[in-house]
Amino acid sequence: MSLVGKLAEAFSVFAGSARANLDGVDTDAVISSRDVVKEGWLTKQSRNVKEWRKRYVVLTKDCLATFRNGPQQVYKCIEATELVFFGHMMTVRSAEQDTGMDNSFCMQRQKDAKFFYFIAETATEKEGWVGAIGRQMVQMTCISTESFFFLTMYIYSLAEPGINFAFQRTCASRLQENQITLASGETDCHDR
Question: Among 70, 124, 141, 174, fewest CB within 10 Å belongs to which?
Answer without folding.
Answer: 124
